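#struct-help
A.M.: can someone run this one for me? Single chain, 359 residues.
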Amino acid sequence: MKNTVIAAPLTRRIDSAIEAAVVLAPVEQDQLARAKARHETRVLVLLSILLAILTLFPLAHTGFTTNDDTHIALITQPFGDAWAAAKRTGRLLYAVAGVIAHVPYLVDDNLYYQTIRLGSLAVTVFLFGFVVFRIFRSSGLAFLTVVFFFAFLTNSWQHNPLTSYPFLYNAGLCFFLVSLLLFHRFLAAPSWRLGVLSGMTFLMALFVSEIFVLYLVVFFALWLSVRPVEWSPKPRLAARKLLLLLPPAITAVIFVGVYFLFRMLHPATYDGTDLGGGKVEKILSVVWQYSLSAFPGHFAFSGIHEPLVSSFTPLGGPFATLFAELRAEWVVKAIIVGVLVAATLRARAGVLGRSRTGS
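D.P.: on it. Structure tokens below:
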């Protein structure tokens, strides 16, 4: 009887300890899972930084590659030269783009120049990833976007933001991406301030390059995804939703109108502003060439640069030349990209698996 009395409290204590352990076990497992996730995130971030360094560092040894870059670097009066270039070419945007193009040369220092050139490129890439994240609400997709950019970055040895016109076109793309972010917020919570800011940043992008006029389709697609039009049975509601397109639409109309008015007042004496004589087939040919050349490996297999390459090394076909010039950092980049993609897809698969099971 005495043993039974003593054992009862002990049994209750053991039961209480087991119950506490059962309650704490999921909490501890959750903490361990979070700690593991944080550790994996740090590793992925470090690998991403290493990938960016391996991609951008070799470009730090690149100097001027075009006559335009040399001319811009030697300008002593950027505002006056930009206005003169605008009148000579009939392109009003040069009055702004010419000044922006001079930013990398404000300080006569190579470190400053390379920081502005490569820093603006890195900011553009990560800003694009942030836009993908905000619009698609997917951190995995945004992360893969940045990874694939650094993995498949193509240096065509021609006019491109990697080797030519430092900062200028990166700044233009940044203006456009910021405008897109502001427009996305404007669609979610319309206000005149957001609309004006979105229009102003889009206008800055247009003053870097007229090509951004074609990007109106991106604003339209974003508007359509956030504010789908219901033509029936509420046409008034549909009309109000159409008004949300005014910020980019008004900006583009004003820019195009002022652009052609300036061109009438200052006829171009530069054939570089000619639209191929207005022939559609020539315009489509240029669009096709630029689109095709964006694919990785195009210049290695197209033979465009074969005379230049063959003057330094004998060619035995694209693959033979590729392996002959293979570098260790290329292999490391491939491994890093493979690890990052596998980790991202595995994490995404885990999220989808948990959502399907309801856990």
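A.M.: thanks! The radius of gyration is 28 Å.
D.P.: also worth noting: The CA atoms of residues 293 and 299 lie 7 Å apart.
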